[in-house]
Amino acid sequence: MAWTPKDVSQYAATCVFLVALAVTFRGLIAVRSNILQLLGWMSNEAAGDVQSYAGIDDAAKLDAHASKRWAVGGTLIRAVLDTVLGGVSYLL
To answer: Is the pTM of this model over 0.70?
Structure first.
């Protein structure tokens, strides 16, 4: 069953809904790209800050990156946001 507006008011409401959905989609993309910084969960090491590795040889850099742990909290939040983004983009 497809949605087809039958009069002018339904057509206008559909346009307003699509604009609101597009704004929501863009907002969710912005939140997703900055969610870890917004929640304050990312430290300088997790961000891979170049300044923290100044003057360290390549082997030490590899060891520092290998010792990072997988953060379930941040990954779970990003997965939920990706699922919501998928649903909203499907509706668009």
So the answer is: no
